[in-house]
Amino acid sequence: MPRNTPPADICVFSKPESLGQRTVASCELELKALRESEERYRALFELGPMAVYSCDALGVIQDFNRRAVELWGREPTAGDNDERFCGSFKLFDPDGRFVPHEQCPMADVLNGTMPVALDTEVVIERPDRSRIIVIVNIRPLRNKCGDIIGAISCFYDVTERREAEQRQRFLMSELEHRGKNLITVIQSIVALSLTSPRTLAEAREVLTQRLQALARGQSVLAVAGFEGASVAEIIRLELEGFSGRVKAVGPDIMLNPKVAQTFTFAVHELATNATKYGALSGPWGKVAIQWSTEGEDTEKRFRFLWRELNGPPVDPPTRQGFGRLLLEKAVALDLHALPRINFAPDGLVYEIEAPLASIMVNSAKGISRRF
Predict the structure, then answer these.
(1) For residue 286, which of 304, 268, 311, 305 has the smallest C-alpha distance?
(2) Contact present, 105 and 90 (Cβ < 8 Å)
(3) Bridge partner list, 342
(4) In 3D, which of 106, 139, 136, 94 has the Cα closest to residue 119?
(5) Hey, CA dihedral for 348, 261, 292, 359, is it positive or negative?
(6) Can you tell me the distance from the alpha carbon of 342 to that of 165, in angstroms, rounded to the nearest whole number?
(7) How far apart are the first and last CA of the chain?
(8) Which domains are present in the chain?
(9) DSSP state of 5
(10) At CB < 8 A and 24+ separation, what contacts does 291-296 make?
(11) How far is the CA of 356 from the CAs of 153, 232, 233, 352, 360, in angstroms?
């Protein structure tokens, strides 16, 4: 074997510098792939619909995405020792109890009080005092020795879902309550309609009309989710057949369910009386309806005026039937009102004056009063 010939099992590089070139090229490719992976991660982190943020072992906020800032209503300073555990302005539990940040789920995960937070519900208050309900999931970050070195939190807004669930529960409860109440109301209508000195046919017609008025009132309430009914809509449904001879003017006022039902019956009785005996019984008669509010704040009053014009001469009734009881006593009781009936020769005039707060939808709670 020639002296300079290497053994067969020894590999010789003809150009030693090629190893270094390949190593540099490989590192550049790895760095490029790492940068691309980091860019993809940042894009998903920033553009994802889920709010995400991370803390170190001491709870100092290290990173957060755009959605977290939107839900917090503010942007914390990453790495600031005063920004710990959560970037929200304030936190509360579902029962409304204030929760300091050092007692929030992130703090509990970091100090080992709980291994993870799964679907935990908390309430975030923003700097503008608005509140949202969020579901939080938190997992700790550990090193190779198993020590907690931080944690990452994902949370999302469920405010609309919770409001829808609350509204559904309210509607189910309201439907149950109203079903029982309607039976009582119908029994009263039937009893009072059939005890009057009418023929069976007349009593049947009156009873049918009153039940239809009740149904119209329920339809108006159903449109608004049983939270109330509009004065204008009640009048429109009762008098739409005489739209050319009835002028109704007034502001947008929502009556609570109890008042809406009584007011519907009152308008129905007025319309029925006008059709049979009053202004709408002849070709030239008209009805002018006005409602308004007067006064300030808690002293505001609701005023309603029904005036019949160009009808036949009016004679006061000789007996007190269902309609009279309703227009005087029921309205006075349910509306806390001062109703007045004037059987003027040139047309009936009916007025209601009531505290506005007692008839309107209870907007402060968002749910109207029951009856």
Answers:
(1) 311
(2) no
(3) 349
(4) 136
(5) positive
(6) 49
(7) 115
(8) 48-157 (3.30.450.20), 198-359 (3.30.565.10)
(9) P
(10) 291/231, 291/249, 291/250, 291/251, 291/253, 292/250, 292/251, 293/251, 293/253, 293/356, 295/356
(11) 49, 16, 18, 11, 6
DSSP letter string, 342-369: EEETTEEEEEEEEEHHHHB--TTTTSPP
Find where tokens 């100092």 sit. Answer: 60
Question: Contacts from 46-53 at CB under 8 Å and sequence distance 24+?
Answer: 49/156, 50/154, 50/155, 50/156, 51/134, 51/154, 51/155, 51/156, 52/152, 52/153, 52/154, 53/87, 53/152, 53/153
Q: Is 110 exposed, middle or buried (0-12, 13-18, 19+ CB in 10 A)?
A: buried
Burial class for 68, CB neighbours closer than 10 Å (0-12, 13-18, 19+): buried
Helix axes 200-223, 159-194, angle to 10 degrees: 170
Beta-bridged to residue 302, according to DSSP, are 293, 354
Phi, psi at residue 264, to the nearest 5°? -60, -45
State the sign of the Cα–Cα–Cα–Cα dihedral 85, 87, 89, 93: negative
What residue type is assigned to position 130 of the chain? S
Tokens of 19: 């190893």
Please give the chain's pLDDT, 371 residues, in tens. Answer: 444 554 545 444 444 455 455 676 666 666 656 665 555 655 555 666 789 999 999 999 999 999 999 999 999 988 888 889 999 999 999 999 999 999 999 999 999 999 999 999 999 999 999 999 999 999 999 999 999 999 999 999 999 998 888 877 876 766 565 555 556 556 656 765 666 666 777 777 777 877 777 676 666 666 555 577 889 988 888 887 777 789 999 999 999 888 888 898 888 889 888 888 888 888 888 999 999 999 887 789 999 999 999 888 887 776 666 778 888 888 999 899 989 999 888 889 999 999 999 998 764 333 333 32
- 364: its two tokens: 């402060």
Question: Would you say 66 and 46 are in contact if contact means Cβ atoms under 8 Å apart?
Answer: yes
- Which pTM was predicted? 0.49
Which amino acid is present at 71?
L
Closest CA to 62 of 45, 42, 85, 41: 85
HSE (CB half, 13 Å, CA atoms) of 304? 25
